[in-house]
Design brief:
Length: 136
C-alpha cells in the first residue's frame, strides 16, 4: 500500500485533532471540513479500499462509528449528518487509505448529493442478487 497522509497521522508524524483512538481505529477532525465537526474515522490497518479491509478492522470501525457520530452531533448541535465512504478514484477517493467521513448538516452547509436514480428491472435484479450472493 502506498504511503498516505493517514499513515503519517497514525504514526504521529503529522499532528491531528484527535477525537477518538483505540488499538484499531483513529478518529480526528478533517483539516478541510465542509461543515463544523466534519470528522474522519480511519482503521489503523493499511487498506486502500473497504473491500481490502479485514473483517476485524471493519468490525472495529463498526463498533465506534455510531458512538463517534453521536458525539459529533452532541458537540455541534447538528440534527442531521451524512456518513460518506469512497472507494477508488472514480468514486472520488482522494486519500487511498480507507476512511469514513461524518459530515454534520446545517441547512446548506455539509454534504450535497446529486442522485440520478434508475429503475431496477425485476429479472435483472433477481439475476444480479443471485450473482452477488454467490460471491459471498
Amino acid at each position: 500500500m502506498p504511503e498516505t497522509i493517514f499513515s503519517k497521522i497514525i504514526r504521529g508524524e503529522i499532528p491531528c485533532h484527535n477525537v477518538y483512538e483505540d488499538a484499531h481505529v483513529l478518529a480526528f477532525l478533517d483539516i478541510f471540513p465542509i461543515s463544523k465537526g466534519h470528522t474522519l474515522i480511519i482503521p489503523k490497518e493499511p487498506a486502500e479500499t473497504l473491500d481490502k479491509l479485514s473483517d476485524d478492522a471493519s468490525a472495529a470501525i463498526g463498533r465506534v462509528l455510531p458512538r463517534i457520530a453521536r458525539a459529533v452531533m452532541a458537540a455541534t448541535g447538528a440534527t442531521a449528518y451524512n456518513v460518506l465512504q469512497n472507494n477508488g478514484s472514480a468514486a472520488h477517493q482522494a486519500v487511498f487509505h480507507v476512511h469514513f467521513h461524518i459530515i454534520p448538516k446545517f441547512g446548506d452547509e455539509g454534504l450535497g448529493i446529486g442522485w440520478k436514480a434508475n429503475k431496477l428491472d425485476n429479472a435483472a435484479g433477481e439475476s444480479l442478487a443471485k450473482d452477488i450472493a454467490a460471491k459471498l
